[in-house]
Amino acid sequence: ITSTKTTFYFLYDIARMHYLISFYFFFFQAEDGIRDAQESRGLGDVYKRQGTGFLTSGARDGSIFHHDTRLRHARVSASTGHMAEVCGLRWCPEGRQLASGGNDNMLKIWDARKDVPRHTHDHRAAVKAIAWAPFQRNLLATGGGTADGTIRLWNTCRGVQVECINTNSQVCSLLWSKKGKELVSAHGFQCGTPRELTELTVWSFPTMRKLTELQTGHSFRVLHLAQSPDGATVCSAAADETLRFWRVFEPCAPQERSPSQAATSGWAASFPSIR
After folding, report:
1. Nearest residue to 156 (alpha-carbon basis) of 140, 134, 136
2. Which residue, among 78, 162, 182, 91, has the nearest Cα to 121 in the 3D structure?
3. pLDDT tens digits for 79-88?
C-alpha cells in the first residue's frame, strides 16, 4: 500500500483517481474519459486542489508539477525549490497556498499564483506529514521523520512556528478533525531505535495535549491516513498491507455536508470508535 489519499474517494464514488509509478504515473477519470500525464522523473506525492480540476504532483528530483486534468496535455506549470524528492503535498482549503515537504528536510509554502516559495522552514528529517487546519486560516501542521520526531504548527501568513511537540517517533501522517479542534497523528519508527510504532494519537488544539492513543493492531508502522467525507472515520494504511477503519472524530452536522456525504454516515457508523 503506497497511498490512501483517495481511499474514501473510491468508497464514496466522489472521484476516481489511480496512480502508479512508471513512465505514466497517474490516471484521472474526468467526465469525458481518462486523462494521463507522462512523467519519467518518478512520482513522490500527488494531491488534488479542492473544488477544481487541478492536480499537483511532486517528483523525485524535487520538482512540483501542476496539471489541469480537463486538458489533453495536462501539465500547465512547474515549480522548483526542493533539493530532493517531494514526499508531501497539501493545498489549503481555500486553494490559495500549497505546502510541500521534501526529503531535503524542508517545508515550503507557495502562493498559488507564484512559482517561488513564500516561506521556507526546516525539520531535522524528511517532511511527509502535512495537514491544513479547516477551522483556522493559515494554520498548518507538519510532522518530521525519524531523526526529527516532532509535530510543528505554523502560521503560514507570518511565516513563523507557533508550536513544536516532540513525539519521539517518526510522524508519517496527520489529519485534522473537520468539526472540532483536534489532530490525529500516525507514527512509524521510534527515534533512536529500530522499533516500529503502530498507534494513532489524538491531540487537542491549541494545548497540544495528548487526548488518547489507539493501538491499531497493525503489525508494522502506519504509513498513511485518509478521512471520510463526514470527517468521523479515519482509515489507516500500514506497511503490513492492511487497511483499518476507526471512528476517531465527531461527524459534521448534516447541514454542513453535501447530500452524497450525508448518505455515507450510516455506513461509516459501523466502524469501531477509539473513544
Report:
1. 140
2. 162
3. 999 999 999 9
Confidence of residue 115 (pLDDT cuts 50, 70, 90): confident
Q: How many CB atoms lie within 10 A of CB 94?
A: 12
197 by DSSP, 3-state: which?
Answer: coil
pLDDT tens figures, 70-109 = 888 888 888 999 999 999 999 999 999 999 999 999 999 9
Query: Is the previous residue joined to 272 through a cis bond, with omega within 30 degrees of 0?
Result: no
H or E stretch covering 211: strand 209-215
Q: What is the dihedral of CA 36, 37, 43, 47, to 10 degrees?
A: -70
Q: How does pLDDT run across 130-153, given as a tens digit for each residue?
A: 999 999 999 999 999 999 999 999
Contact (Cβ atoms closer than 8 angstroms) between residue 269 and residue 206: no
Query: What does the radius of gyration of the chain's CA atoms come to, in whole angstroms?
Result: 18
Q: What is the DSSP letter of 168?
A: S
Among 11, 2, 3, 6, residue whose Cα is nearest residue 270: 11
Select from 16, 43, 14 the least CA-distant residue to 27. Answer: 16
Q: What cell numbers appear for 187 in the block?
A: 507514527
List of long-range contacts for 40-45, beta carbons under 8 Å, 24+ apart? 42/85, 43/19, 44/85, 44/86, 44/87, 44/102, 45/3, 45/86, 45/87, 45/88, 45/89, 45/128
Amino acid at 31: E
